[in-house]
Write a structure and sequence with these properties.
single chain, Rossmann fold, 5-stranded parallel sheet, 19% strand, globular
């Protein structure tokens, strides 16, 4: 049984305790954030777990916010989700036996760790009774079907919201692991075609690029670092950077205007969204984020170190995260400084 777990900042500490329990009990789980106690919005995390459970990728989900109320409301907006907010073991058992709840919601500020662990244990071990309860669930499904008739535009908006959340978690997790200093560089490669579930280079999307770029620019602005957006092979994998970055690092400028068919949607978006965008031929970035296996290694400083984060996909695209470290030189008598950064 695979379990998806997530929280906002108000449930972060309890989530970390629950993860220890899941690991000790050898449950197969994945943490979908948040990754720090910085303020975030609970609907984003209720949504991502609800989508994972609704799709069948995960059998059950656990979501936590300050009270458990907001995040459970958000999760229950997704068709097929029965998120139960439980503050005691009796409710946890009943939510499984009678309601076949597929997501458990908890409130860190109202439920202590010991009680929460007991609730989780009870909830995970209790089976649905079926029988008369199945008839009642079918009536709930009928109500859901009656009102679940959104237009395609609404469905697309939900998809873009998921992409935005994954992008936010990805860049946030990488920044936390990389520990970058002011004015250092993250190289970003992105196939919006792959994000949309299509073959790389076949179905670029400015709408997807704009959603991803918004999250990355906000994160880079907070951290005071530079983004370097790599284009595709049709422009020799040149990168879009801020002019100040090019001047500071002495980068060679090249004359090219990236667009969807040559450079890619994200590079085109960078040319529009950056304050003073320029294109450069090559760079040595301090960390990297590759969305859709676009091959960014040529633009990263040696030595490149892969990083594993809870986020493995943005949309349908596989994501690779990387940081860099200085080369280790010398022989068998050499010693190294652990805190030295690239």
């Amino acid at each position: 049984m695979r379990i998806a777990i997530a929280s906002d900042h108000g449930g972060f500490k309890l989530k970390e305790q629950l993860k220890k329990y899941l690991q000790e009990q050898q449950f197969d789980y994945q943490d979908f954030g948040t990754l720090t106690e910085d303020s975030v919005d609970y609907p984003d995390y209720g949504l991502v777990v609800a989508q994972k459970v609704s799709s069948g990728e995960f059998a059950k989900g656990i979501i936590i916010c300050g009270t458990g109320i907001g995040i459970s409301i958000a999760a229950n907006k997704v068709p097929g989700i029965r998120a139960a907010l439980c503050n005691d073991s009796f409710s946890a058992r009943a939510s499984r036996e009678h309601n076949d709840a597929n997501i458990l919601a908890l409130g860190e500020r109202v439920t202590g760790v010991s009680l929460a662990l007991n609730i989780v244990e009870t909830w995970l071990k209790t089976e649905f009774e079926g029988g008369r309860h199945q008839r009642r669930l079918e009536k709930i499904s009928a109500i859901e079907s009656q009102y679940n008739c959104c237009e395609q535009g609404e469905a697309d908006a939900v998809s873009l919201a998921q992409i935005a959340l994954a992008a936010r978690q990805g860049i946030g997790g990488l920044l936390e692991r990389a520990g970058l200093e002011k004015d250092q560089i993250i190289v970003v490669g992105c196939s919006t075609s792959e994000v949309a579930g299509a073959r790389i280079g076949s179905q670029g999307s400015i709408a997807i690029a704009q959603v991803i770029m918004k999250e990355f620019l906000e994160a880079a602005g907070r951290q005071k670092i530079y983004l370097a957006i790599q284009g595709c092979e049709h422009i020799n994998r040149a990168l879009v950077v801020e002019k100040s970055c090019a001047l500071q690092y002495g980068l060679e400028l090249v004359n090219v205007m990236p667009h969807q068919r040559a450079g890619g949607a994200l590079a085109e978006t960078a040319m529009k969204e950056f304050a003073q965008p320029v294109a450069v031929e090559k760079i040595q970035g301090h960390a990297g984020l590759d969305i859709g296996d676009t091959l960014i290694g040529m633009h990263l400083k040696p030595v490149v170190v892969p990083v594993r984060l809870p986020i493995s996909k943005i949309g349908q695209a596989h994501v690779t995260f990387a940081i860099t470290r200085p080369k280790l030189i010398g022989g068998e008598r050499a010693k190294y400084w652990d805190k030295l950064k690239a």
